[in-house]
Specification:
mainly alpha; 80% helix; 0% strand
Amino acid sequence: METPALMERAFLAMQKGARGMAALLAEETGDLMLATIAAANLSSARNVLVEVHHRRLAEGEDIDAIAADAPERVRAAFDLVENGLRGYAVKA
């Protein structure tokens, strides 16, 4: 991911995937704006998870350790998307 051309291609592929997801959601819901927001949130969560796992691998972390905590990280990421940001980082 250190090559600018590959970074650009990865970014474009992620954008294409998000647009495709938004189109499918819009077909189901009839609301392209909300479908696009939902797709962006879901895609962003997925992309961050992939990026974190790649970074951990690049830093030399054992792949079995990464795989072992991946399900919990995935749950936490998509719980945040599902439940919105309400209550996240709110000062008491």
